[in-house]
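Allow me, if you will, to draw on your knowledge of protein folds for a short while. I have a record of one protein: its chain in single-letter code and its fold written as discrete structure tokens. I should value your view on which stretches of the chain appear to form regular backbone elements. Thank you for your consideration; the sequence and its tokens are set out here:
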Amino acid sequence: DDVKKVKEYMSEIKGSVVAIEDTKMSISLSPEEILRTSEHAVSQAVETIRNRLDQFGLSEPSVTRQGKDKIQVELAGIKTVEEEQRARELISRAAKLQLMAVDEDRAGRVYSMSNNEAATYGDVVLEDATNTQMKYLVREIPILDGSMLTDAHVGFDQNNRPLINFTLNAEGAEIFGDFTGKNVGKRLAVVLDGKVYSAPNINERIGGGSGQISGSYTVVEAKDLAIALRSGSLLAPIYVMEKRSVGPSLGADSIRAALLALASGFGLVILFMMFYYGLAGVIANIAVVINLFIILGLISLLGATLT
């Protein structure tokens, strides 16, 4: 009876498929739910990448979906290899922020504990972001994550080293305050993309819903990380499948070809109007030219862009 009740309860979870064999129960996503989740992940990635690039400072970046699981990104204005690398890292970075409690009871065994053993206690072993030899044993379920983040910006510590100040929403601030108030004397790990950036001791209850992420990065890296955090984390990893670069010479050739085509077409139209309609064609040509200058003048006056 208990197994039947559990199965009925689990079956009510939308998109889940429950299978029971003796006393073993397995739960998986239905094909429809897998498709829906995949669709949402791609759509969210398009929006997140677009938000990140808008804050990066490029001129009108283009982010469009291609097929089921591909995204095409066009970046105009990239001038150096360094800028291209920054943009690629900004696009592909997961930026998954988590605040996780350190398991103080078993922290002394972290270097001898395997991930499988840690999982039996509800823990996970994570490496330090700057020193891969240093490890932390943290609770697998985070206290809160980046979905509760409302702002992130670059600041500096007392030694003028860059850090990231972040602010939580009302729900996150309440959870953060309650947790720190009940865990004074323990450590709280700041985890970003599966790496521990810091694990400070909680000296008192922290209200206000704000915190810091410190690490050994440059000001530029800190700015890019803040952009990624503000824009939200990616639900699925991003991989670069293909890269194409259009150099200035190719762009100049395209402009010359376009101008030649424009001049040729315009000239042929004028000649046709003159020979076919005579004087009326000449008058029509003059009117078209005057109208063209009026339109260009208005566009220039209004500061509009012709696309």
